[in-house]
Design brief:
Strand order of the largest sheet: 1-2
Distance between the termini: 6 Å
Helix content: over 70%
Structural class: mainly alpha
Strand content: under 5%
Number of strands: 2
Radius of gyration: 19 Å
Shape: globular
């Protein structure tokens, strides 16, 4: 059920910010371990998340403090942990030789999220929205092949590969992250989805900083120094991550998860658009097909949302 129209601009902005953050984070990842690179996102994002919450409350909601149910904190912790696990599983899929299959199966997150939110949250979508989800997932899978010929049978046969298992598991945990965020936002007593999203964001990022930081302190203490040494670039990652997550969380708080995720796949369009027009990289025929499917999926999901919401 859509509770506010803010979900659409928030989701579109989130897709653009995520593409930008990923580009910047690649620079940091070259000098840090997997877990250290993950900590950068949360450690440097926490001050910005707190600043966003305080600034919004001060400027737009000069009202009494929000009422936060204790269950919301538990869901924040679960969502934060799920996101950490999902990111690590994605990196494990990338480490396998069959990078293409792992990436493609990870992008089934939208479909997995739709099914899970239907069962766990009772989110209802129109038939057009479901068709849009399917078109978007197929489009992303085509884009993940990088122009290499790979039919449906190839993907099915590759299901037993470690990269496929890691990819599917990554998509599952990313879907669980979204459900945790959505459920946590229900524990914030307010009529403003932005206020709820920023509150949940600040709590989640703080808990992720503690979880990932404790792991790094116990297992990779030498990487902590490297995390602080990269503060110039890491600060940019933290800012973009907090802004992007604020938009994602606003979308999750005000619209069905599957709808937010399928529209959020405009990130792919932004990424390939920058590669083509800014970096002058040519678009392959398969990439054009994938882009058209992703764009069609977004359009169908929006039309379906308009009819059902």
């Amino acid at each position: 059920m859509i509770t506010s129209p803010i979900w659409l601009p928030a989701t579109l902005i989130a897709g653009g910010l995520q593409a930008w953050r990923t580009a910047v984070q690649r620079r940091v990842g070259q000098s840090l371990s997997v877990n250290a690179a993950g900590l950068v996102r949360y450690l440097y994002g926490l001050p910005f998340a707190l600043a966003l919450l305080a600034g919004y409350q001060l400027l737009f909601l000069p009202a009494p403090a929000l009422v936060l149910h204790i269950s919301a904190i538990g869901f924040c912790a679960a969502a934060g942990l799920a996101q950490i696990v999902a990111t690590n599983l994605m990196l494990m899929a990338f480490a396998e030789r069959n990078y293409i299959v792992g990436t493609a199966y990870a992008k089934t997150e939208a479909a997995q999220g739709a099914l899970l939110s239907l069962v766990l949250l009772g989110d209802q979508l129109s038939p057009l929205a479901w068709i849009g989800i399917g078109a978007g997932v197929i489009g992303v899978m085509i884009l993940s092949t990088g122009g290499r010929p790979m039919g449906l049978g190839d993907f099915i046969r590759a299901l037993g590969a470690p990269s496929a298992r890691y990819g599917l598991a990554s998509g599952l945990f990313f879907a669980l992250t979204a459900i945790g965020v959505r459920r946590a936002s229900m524990g914030v007593v307010t009529d403003d989805p932005i206020s709820a999203a920023l509150t949940i964001l600040a709590i989640t990022v703080a808990l992720q900083t503690l979880m990932q930081g404790a792991w790094l302190l116990c297992r990779e203490p030498d990487q902590l120094r490297a995390v602080f040494a990269t503060w110039r670039v890491s600060g940019q990652v933290g800012l973009l991550s907090s802004l992007g997550s604020a938009c994602w969380f606003t979308g999750f708080a005000s619209a069905p998860i599957a709808l937010v995720r399928i529209v959020g796949q405009v990130e792919i369009i932004f990424t390939l658009g920058l590669a083509h027009y800014y970096l002058r990289e040519p678009l392959r025929r398969s990439e054009v097909t994938g882009l058209l499917l992703v764009a069609s999926g977004v359009l169908l999901a929006l039309i379906g949302a308009g009819r059902g919401g």
